């Protein structure tokens, strides 16, 4: 049986850009739009030409997409103006875009209060704007803003707005839950009513996430007959965000209810790149990925408790609803204070560490993990430190070098420009094969100074760590008072782009930091195959 085509519309670069703290550069927009096209998104909305210099420049040249239709966003003509005498509309029509998405009020309340015009003038604005874009050969869609709230307030007028868009030639009439407060059952009922007057093949859904139901609302609209879904990568958007395409796409591809009935532009092969796409966006925005995000989060396929881990090792379906590889994620068994032998063995397998199931040192490793996590270590967040602990317990980590002493001083002084600055100086003494090496370095803080000094001269091992750098540093105080214990997590990266996390715990933040730094260096040496 042939499947219906369901279309995906991404508004990350426009609606997603309204997220607090998110600002896209022109290069960001170019890279992200190309990434969306490669993923298989049908429509990529690039922004609002004329609203700002970046969007105007972005729409000065059409991207060379292989699949997606480049879409410009803007308002319908202003009340009281003609379509030929509205500078804002002219800017949208002049944009180098395949399609135009107009936003129009579909709530009588919004027309009266926000636009301060009449219902009929608003309808005329919709008709005129669609007709003007159609006359230029553009594909047109109309985002019916506040549609669901407007429908509940004045059904006839909301439907009149949808009809005006469709009858004027809009390819898509998109119903917007602009305030994000509509429930899924309401969405399904209202969309079902709309498609009695506008064909479902021309109806879309644009859901906001203010009740944490944007994805559910989008799926409810599809069940009712809508055939376009608008959303953003990672659920970016104003307030609580928009419908998350990183959750919707796998659901549409992998859940039988939708996969059997619908075809989308994202292929099975492209679906396996979804985690990379999601994390690339976060990296570009300098945001920490949501580790608990559905499908693409780092914890989406993580098992922690011993009973669950044992079952997952027998058959992953016991605690997984889809295969992690299908979206580019991977299965992970955490090592924690709840760990049993099953957890530890699964993590050793993942790390590629050979072991004998009958080795009594495995039991010692389990007990060591429990004791250390009780003291504050967090190995589920520090893969590299677990790797080293396991290898050391099983007797497989060379003693590459020994730190005999380190010293850190922090000084506040005036620089040559007369500015008051704070400078840290660290001195580290290490023993490499009986040779004492002393290194000193300044840094913008004690940890930075220690990091630079430690990696400044490690003799014959220096060539292995030249590409090593610290990329993140996180501190957590585990208890209060003057004897507070500090946990430090350090994320490091090497010249290949691979990253790993190490952990240190101590009442002294410098000592905790140095533990994590040492683990990072040792892990790099082990990874590089350095010989003692």
UniProtKB/TrEMBL annotation:
Catalytic reaction list: pyruvate + acetyl-CoA + H2O = (3R)-citramalate + CoA + H(+)
Presence of keyword Membrane: no
Pathway(s) served: Amino-acid biosynthesis; L-isoleucine biosynthesis; 2-oxobutanoate from pyruvate: step 1/3
GO molecular function: (R)-citramalate synthase activity; 2-isopropylmalate synthase activity
InterPro entries referenced in this protein's UniProt entry, alphabetically: 2-isopropylmalate_synth_dimer (IPR013709), AIPM/Hcit_synth_CS (IPR002034), Aldolase_TIM (IPR013785), Citramal_synthase (IPR005675), LeuA/HCS_post-cat (IPR054691), LeuA_allosteric_dom_sf (IPR036230), PYR_CT (IPR000891)
Enzyme Commission number(s): 2.3.3.21
Gene Ontology BP, a term: isoleucine biosynthetic process
Record-stated family: Belongs to the alpha-IPM synthase/homocitrate synthase family.
Protein name: Citramalate synthase
Organism (species): Bradyrhizobium pachyrhizi
Lineage of the species this protein comes from: Bacteria, Pseudomonadati, Pseudomonadota, Alphaproteobacteria, Hyphomicrobiales
């Amino acid at each position: 049986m042939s499947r219906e085509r369901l279309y995906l519309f991404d508004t990350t670069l426009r609606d997603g850009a309204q997220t607090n703290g998110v600002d896209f550069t022109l290069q960001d927009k170019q890279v992200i739009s190309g990434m969306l096209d490669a993923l298989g998104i049908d429509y990529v909305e690039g922004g609002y030409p004329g609203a700002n210099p970046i969007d105007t420049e972005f729409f000065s040249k059409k991207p060379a997409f292989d699949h997606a239709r480049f879409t410009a966003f803007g308002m319908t003509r202003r009340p009281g103006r003609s379509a030929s005498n509205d500078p804002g509309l002219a800017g949208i029509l002049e944009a180098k875009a395949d399609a135009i998405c107009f936003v129009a009020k579909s709530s009588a309340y919004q027309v009266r209060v926000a636009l301060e015009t009449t219902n009929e003038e608003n309808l005329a604005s919709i008709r005129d704007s669609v007709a003007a874009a159609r006359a230029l050969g553009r594909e047109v869609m109309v985002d019916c803003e506040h549609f669901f709230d407007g429908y509940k307030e004045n059904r006839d007028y909301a439907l009149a707005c949808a009809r005006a868009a469709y009858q004027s030639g809009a390819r898509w009439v998109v119903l917007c839950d602009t305030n994000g407060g509509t429930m899924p059952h309401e969405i399904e009922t209202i969309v079902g009513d709309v498609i009695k007057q506008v064909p479902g093949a021309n109806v879309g859904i644009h859901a906001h996430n203010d009740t944490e139901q944007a994805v559910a609302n989008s799926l409810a609209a599809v069940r009712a007959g809508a055939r376009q879904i608008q959303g953003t990568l990672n659920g970016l958007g104003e307030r609580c965000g928009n419908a998350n395409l990183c959750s919707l796409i796998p659901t549409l591809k992998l859940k039988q209810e939708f996969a059997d009935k619908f075809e989308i532009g994202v292929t099975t092969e492209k679906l396996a790149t979804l985690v990379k796409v999601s994390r690339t966006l976060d990296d570009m925005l300098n945001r920490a990925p949501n580790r608990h995000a559905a499908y693409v989060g780092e914890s989406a396929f993580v098992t922690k408790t011993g009973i669950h881990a044992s079952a997952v090792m027998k058959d992953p379906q016991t605690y997984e609803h889809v295969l992690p590889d299908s979206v580019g994620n991977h299965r992970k068994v955490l090592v924690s204070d709840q760990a049993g032998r099953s957890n530890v063995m699964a993590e050793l397998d993942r790390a590629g560490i050979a072991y004998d199931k009958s080795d009594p040192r495995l039991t010692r490793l389990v007990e060591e993990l429990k004791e250390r996590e009780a003291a504050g270590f967090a190995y589920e967040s520090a893969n590299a430190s677990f790797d080293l602990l396991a290898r050391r317990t099983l007797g497989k980590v060379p003693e590459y070098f020994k730190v005999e002493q380190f010293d850190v001083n922090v000084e506040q002084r005036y620089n040559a420009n007369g500015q008051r600055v704070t400078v840290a100086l660290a001195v580290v003494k290490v023993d490499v094969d009986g040779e004492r090496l002393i290194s000193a370095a300044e840094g913008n803080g004690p940890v930075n100074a220690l990091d630079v000094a430690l990696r400044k001269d490690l003799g014959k091992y220096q060539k292995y760590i030249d590409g090593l750098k610290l990329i993140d540093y996180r501190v957590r105080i585990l208890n209060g008072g003057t004897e507070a214990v500090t946990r430090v997590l350090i994320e490091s990266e090497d010249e290949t782009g691979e990253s790993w996390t190490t952990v240190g715990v101590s009442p002294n933040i410098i000592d905790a930091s140095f533990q994590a730094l040492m683990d990072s260096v040792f892990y790099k040496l082990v990874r590089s195959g350095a010989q003692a």
